[in-house]
């Protein structure tokens, strides 16, 4: 169940993503789910789609400069840190405070656009995993665990300007 109306009473992150989508003339506004979808599986269940159609945001901390690196990956795949490290240099895990400070979103609602990093921090370096292109339609977080928006993988690439790379572990 979801509510398609954009409500100004919604949380700031959700409103920011809605404005970013409008600014980029994206045809689909974010939906407000009746249940929180903090994980890819929860989002897939709430939307009635396959786990792979969830474009999850995985944030890492680049050791060289403390920059956030965000990978938008298919919900049914795990990011291969060795592949990513070859593009970014050494990485470490990002905790909740780091994610919030560098993206403006809390874990469970990190969107691939509409960032609001804390003062003095750059927007994350973005990558889109090629495995998302297995699907005609994908869904990403819209700034809050209850918010999602629909797009095609090509629209995700266009909305973010992120390079499409092979960055997940080989499926068993």
Task: State which percent range the strand residues make up.
Answer: 15-25%
Mean pLDDT: 93
Radius of gyration from the CA trace? Answer: 15 Å
The largest sheet is: 9 strands, mixed
- Structural class label: alpha/beta
Task: Please estimate the helix content.
Answer: 25-40%
DSSP summary: helix tally = 5
Name the shape in a single word: globular
Q: Strand-and-helix sequence, N→C?
A: EHEHEEHEHEEEHE
- Poorly predicted regions are 1-6
Count of β-strands: 9
Ends: how far apart? Answer: 33 Å
Q: What does this 3D model show about the protein?
A:
Strands 1, 2, 3, 4, 5, 6, 7, 8 and 9 form a 9-stranded mixed β-sheet that branches. It is built from 5 helices and 9 strands; from the N terminus they run βαβαββαβαβββαβ. The longest helix is centred in the N-terminal third of the chain and has 12 residues, at 12-23. The protein has 172 residues and is α/β, with parallel strands linked by helices. It has helices spanning 12-23, 40-47, 81-88, 96-103, 153-160; strands spanning 2-3, 31-33, 54-62, 68-74, 91-93, 125-129, 138-141, 147-151, 164-165. Helix content is 26%, strand content 23%. The N and C termini lie far apart (33 Å).
């Amino acid at each position: 169940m979801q509510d398609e109306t954009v409500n100004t009473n919604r949380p700031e992150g959700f409103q920011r993503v809605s404005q970013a989508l409008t600014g980029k003339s994206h045809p689909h506004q974010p939906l407000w789910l009746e249940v929180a979808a903090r994980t890819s599986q929860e989002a897939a269940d709430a939307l009635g789609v396959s786990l792979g159609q969830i474009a999850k945001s995985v944030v890492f901390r680049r050791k060289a400069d403390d920059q956030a690196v965000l990978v938008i990956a298919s919900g049914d795949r795990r990011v291969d840190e060795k592949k990513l490290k070859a593009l970014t240099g050494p990485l470490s895990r990002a905790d909740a405070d780091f994610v919030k400070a560098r993206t403006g979103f809390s874990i469970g609602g990190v969107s691939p656009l509409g960032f609001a990093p804390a003062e003095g921090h750059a927007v994350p370096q973005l990558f889109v995993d090629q495995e998302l292109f297995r699907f005609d339609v994908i869904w990403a977080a819209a700034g809050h665990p209850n918010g999602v928006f629909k797009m095609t993988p090509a629209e995700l690439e266009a909305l973010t300007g992120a390079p499409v790379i092979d960055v997940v572990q080989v499926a068993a």
